[in-house]
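Need residues for this backbone.
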């Protein structure tokens, strides 16, 4: 049975000039916000973060967070009430999917999908106390490059391959534990809401809305944040 067309549009291969403009705008915006930390240090804060990612792709017929990746970048935030904080991040984010052969079970199937993004999350954070806060918010991912192989044969350069979308949309949720006044542990989920491929394909699943077919990144992130100003 033929599936209905997706309700939401997908994005094709990225245009290099467009992506350069996007990255430039993100960098300029981040620098502009960071420059205010010296003016209003009691309200603004900033820092760097780095961590590891476990990811899978819902709809690729494989399951399990078997693809390891890197999450690293910088952040700025603004505390506008006693408990409420707005945070913006700029991160390099590795996602994808992996299936290794299991020779003991005579399972020779092999697959690797590795895709890199620059991701821009905008997060609302609720500060419970000096040691714990929670977060939720959306993020946009801007495609950089990818590698894909099946049966140890690269298919990334195949003209008929279903390439990654130029822009992705995610929802994030997580929590922070302050290990010290400057060092923070973060655990976060990052889940795509729109198709991460240029087209729909066999094995695609539906997510959230009827007709929203596609493949979707699902990621678990553990990272350390270092903020420049003391937390208390």
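Answer:
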């Amino acid at each position: 049975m033929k599936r209905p067309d997706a309700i939401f549009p997908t994005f094709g291969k990225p245009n290099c000039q467009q992506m350069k403009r996007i990255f430039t705008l993100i960098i300029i915006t981040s620098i502009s916000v960071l420059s205010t930390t010296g003016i209003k240090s009691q309200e603004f804060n900033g820092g760097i973060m780095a961590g590891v990612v476990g990811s899978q792709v819902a709809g690729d017929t494989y399951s399990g967070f078997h693809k390891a990746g890197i999450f690293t970048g910088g952040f700025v935030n603004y505390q506008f009430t006693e408990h409420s904080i707005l945070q913006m991040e700029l991160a390099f984010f590795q996602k994808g999917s992996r299936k290794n052969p299991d020779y003991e079970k005579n399972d020779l199937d092999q697959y690797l999908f590795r895709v890199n993004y620059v991701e821009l999350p905008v997060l609302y954070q609720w500060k419970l106390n000096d040691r714990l806060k929670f977060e939720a918010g959306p993020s946009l991912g801007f495609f950089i490059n990818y590698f894909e192989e099946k049966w140890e044969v690269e298919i990334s350069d195949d003209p008929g391959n279903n390439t990654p979308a130029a822009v992705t949309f995610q929802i994030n949720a997580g929590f922070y534990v302050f290990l010290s006044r400057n060092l923070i542990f973060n655990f976060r989920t990052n889940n795509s809401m729109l198709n991460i491929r240029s087209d729909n394909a066999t094995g695609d699943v539906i997510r959230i809305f009827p007709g929203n077919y596609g493949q979707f990144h699902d990621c678990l992130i553990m990272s350390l944040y270092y903020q420049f100003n003391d937390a208390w």
